[in-house]
Design a protein that fits this description.
The chain is mainly beta and 143 residues long. The protein is 8% helix and 43% strand.
Length: 143
């Protein structure tokens, strides 16, 4: 399935397991996970994992998924336990600049970090996942 992207030259291909954002031109991204921070890339990969996912090498896992998607170029990778059909895309355009954010947010084990215990304390404590990768066009232009 393809999702309409609000930035020219950007496509989003989604399956239940993987969301692949591809850009013809370089994007400036800000991400919190694998190869995170500010980066310049043409590929963003957001992969679904189960709620009990635990890997000693999540980066290697993402590289395997990228290889399965025939992705050979450097990419920014994220893992989420939120079903990708629940991902949301937000965008804003102003003065020729377009910014988009693709977000998944899990609240099954919601907490306020450092303030409250996990919401479901009567169950095995799990991890919450939130993935957000934002991108902006390098050379702004309208679609």
């Amino acid at each position: 399935m393809f999702i309409h992207a609000p930035i020219c030259g950007v496509t989003i291909h989604a399956t239940p397991e993987v969301m692949h954002v591809h850009s013809r031109e370089m994007l400036t991204t800000l991400s919190s996970f694998f190869r995170g921070g500010f980066r310049h890339t043409r590929h963003i990969l957001n992969a679904y994992v189960t709620k009990d996912y635990c890997s000693a090498d999540a980066a290697a896992h993402l590289r395997r998924i990228a290889a399965q998607c025939d992705m050979t170029a450097p990419f920014v990778g994220l893992l989420t336990a939120v079903r990708l059909r629940k991902a949301r895309l937000a965008h804003l355009a102003e003065d020729g600049l377009r910014v988009a954010a693709l977000v998944t947010a899990g609240v099954g084990n919601a907490i306020r970090a450092g303030v409250t215990p996990p919401y479901r304390t009567h169950r095995r404590r799990g991890r919450s996942t939130s993935s957000c990768c934002s991108a902006r066009n390098e050379r702004a232009r309208r679609c």
